[in-house]
Amino acid sequence: MFVTQPFSVDSYLMQLQSVIIDKQHFLFLKQFGLQQNVQQDENIPESLIIYLRVPKLDPREPPLVYPRIPFVGHLLGMIQDPHQYFFKLNKRTNHPVATLPILNGKVYVINSPQLVQAAFRNQSLSLAPLVNEYVGRMHELSPSARRSYAEDGMHERMMQLFITRMSGESLKRMNTVAMREMNSIFQGSSASRGQEKRVIETENLWLWLRNIMTVVTTTALLGQKNPWKKDPSLIEAYWSWESGDISRRTPLAAIKDRASHQGQIAIRKALNIYFAEEHHSNDVSQLTVDTVAMQKQYSFSTSDLAAAYLQVIHASLMNAVPTAFWVMAHIYSRQELLASLREETFNAVKQQSLENGERQVSIEVDQLDKLCPKLMSVFREAHRLASIATLHRRVVDDTFLSEGNGPNVRSYLLKKGITVMIPTIVGLREPRLWGGVVAAEFDPERFLGQSKKQQGNSSYTELRGTESISNLRKKAYFPFGGGKELCPGRNFAIAEVMGMMVVLLNGFDITSADGGTLPLPKPGKPKLTTGTARPDQNADLRARIMRRPGWENVVWETVAGPKVTP
Ligand code: HEM
User: Which parts of the sequence are annotated with region: Disordered (predicted)?
Assistant: First the structure.
């Protein structure tokens, strides 16, 4: 599972910064599909070949958008501010889809919501070739395991497994395990309950949440014996690894990005030990059990299982944790919103006194979207503002995309072999779609359909044909991707974040370090491969987390599905 960014665009861009195009770089371009038609001639410096080529364009292809600085302008733009670059480019050109020349090659960037949805439906646009190329560079996998992706369609099989195992009863079991783990962290052990320190002072609220969610999520996937529970140093190991350029697999990258490399080694070692043992407890997710069984059929060794599973861990944490952070931060930084959500979520839980004097509070986690519509709207709005994913597909056969039907609707030819980029930010922040200047602002009621601030702009609807603004919004809202690559973990992530928020809102106050309203941090500068914004690490992230009076002796119980014993 190689969520969203299957190849090393970052390292590719980094290399360009030096403007020295060496052999290694030539290979990067090759991976990116940017140097087709270039014959590698040993006698001519590759840099020359690349600079002198301009992409050929069929008139039916999307319009060419030249960068302001020839050849490298688009790349430099992406290096400086990768996500804003697509946003600004769309604002400048208004093309539904554009061809961006980069050195001697090109990529397509899709901007219009209708074309994005057409791209999701189009069978000639696929993520699989990019995944297979990425796996080809995963030297930690044995050659036969790598071949199973390239030759036996392992990516498609894995996606199928995810879709079935992260829905229905197996999803309910995962939700139960996740919430039980979360509850035990928040409520403390029965022996210590009520006597626990009421105030947690943290230097960094992001790290506090990140650490809790890493343990909760890995436990939902791997059960109580999960390595992250046994050895909390693996939490830092994972986040160090993911903060590096994770798709670089060269010895040089290992030296340059030592912490990231060491993190990856530590996790693979721990997962190796985990997979070497047989785990029969029923709190291991069906997803994990079936993934391992399938990969063993393809003769994956324990070390292959560990290397491949790290990608599953990555998929489950990289977006869910920052999304949860923004939901929490938006709520606790607004007193009025906090009060109204407390009321909504209080009405969504059931309470019962226990014989020992404690109070049991139960949450029906898979009903929360219906029981707490305002919290759900906040989740979607926080997600709208935090999502900065750029989705990728490869054109596997020449194909046409069009914004709709009818004689005046233009179709665009997409040529085989070219990489397609679909930035979520363009549709999610489009001012003409989400209410002008308020498009960039947080509106907790935006997805309740009652917000007065949401005037669409008719110039935008005209630009996009005859579709209504509300239809266009639906098409532009795809923070979980779409088509056959639509995130299969989305329902788990939503239940996890919503369940956690119900516990926090009822049971805890979160304030600034001096007890005032929590400040909302600004997002930090993301890497090109980041799918969900993180808070700026220079922001003041200190916070106090306190049990609310009257909620000290609460036992949280989650009703999510069948009972799951560890
Ligand atoms: C708020 C949380 C999450 C967000 C925003 C998110 C977002 C995404 C996006 C944008 C994609 C790419 C879709 C596309 O290319 O069309 C994706 C794929 C995927 N996601 Fe999620 N995701 C989240 C949580 C999760 C969780 C919790 C899991 C697993 C437990 C998960 C597993 C996956 C997998 C397996 C893929 C497919 C990767 C591949 O095709 O190689 N995601 N997700």
Answer: 516-538
Claim to verify: residue 365 and residue 397 sit in the same structural domain: no
* Predicted TM-score of the model (pTM): 0.89
Q: Which amino acid is at 177?
A: V
Q: C-alpha 27: how far from its chain's center?
A: 28
Residues 35, 174, single domain; the answer is no
Cα–ligand 1 centroid distance for 40 (angstroms): 37
Ligand 1 pocket mutation pick from 3, 246, 326 by most atoms within 8 angstroms of CB: 3
Residue 193 has a pLDDT of 56
**What is residue 89's predicted lDDT score, i.e. its pLDDT?**
92
Q: What angle separates helix 258-276 from helix 302-317, to the nearest 10 degrees? A: 120
Nearest 5°: phi and psi at 149?
-75, -50
Whether pLDDT at 74 is above 60: yes
Nearest CA owner, ligand 1 atom 13: 481
| Helix H or strand E encompassing 262 | helix 258-276
Q: Which two tokens stand for residue 294?
A: 């399938």
Is 487 labelled as part of a ligand binding site? yes
In sequence order, what E strands does 8-127 have? 97-102, 105-110, 125-126
Strand order of the β-sheet with 359-364 is 350-353, 359-364, 554-559
Same domain membership, residue 327 and residue 221: yes
Q: Do 95 and 180 sit in the same domain of this protein? A: no
Average pLDDT, the chain: 85
Distance between CA 141 and CA 5 in Å, rounded? 19
* CATH of residue 184: 1.10.630.10
Question: For residues 121 and 115, what is the distance between their CA atoms, to the nearest angstrom?
Answer: 10
Over residues 97-126, the pLDDT tens digits come to: 999 998 878 999 999 999 999 999 999 999
Give the per-residue pLDDT at 444.
Answer: 96
Q: Are residues 263 and 330 in the same domain?
A: yes
At 246 the pLDDT is 72
User: Is 474 inside any structural domain?
Assistant: no
**What value does the mean pLDDT take over residues 203-231?**
96
Domain assignment of residue 65, yes or no: yes
Interface confidence (ipTM) of the complex: 0.98
- Domain ends where: 374, 402, 430? 402
Ligand 1: which residue has its CA nearest to atom 18? 487
Section 350-375 average pLDDT: 90
Domains: count for the chain: 2
Three-class SS state of 402:
strand
Segment 39-54, tens digit of pLDDT: 333 343 444 444 445 5
Residues 223 and 254 occupy one common structural domain: yes
Q: CA of 174: how far to CAs of 213, 279, 284, in Å?
A: 14, 16, 8
In this structure, the residues whose C-beta lies within 6 A of any atom of ligand 1 are: 1-4, 127, 131, 159, 162, 315-316, 319-320, 323, 389, 391, 479-482, 485-490, 492-493, 531-532
**Between 143-152 and 154-165, two packed helices, what is the crossing angle to 10 degrees?**
80
Q: Phi and psi of 439, rounded to 5°?
A: -60, -30
The full length of the chain comes to 566
Given a contact cutoff of 8 angstroms between Cβ atoms, the answer to whether 170 and 562 are in contact is no
Are both 297 and 398 inside the same structural domain?
Answer: no
Q: Select the more confidently predicted residue: 364 or 539.
A: 539
**Does a structural domain hold residue 132?**
no
Give the domain range for residue 356: 159-383+483-559
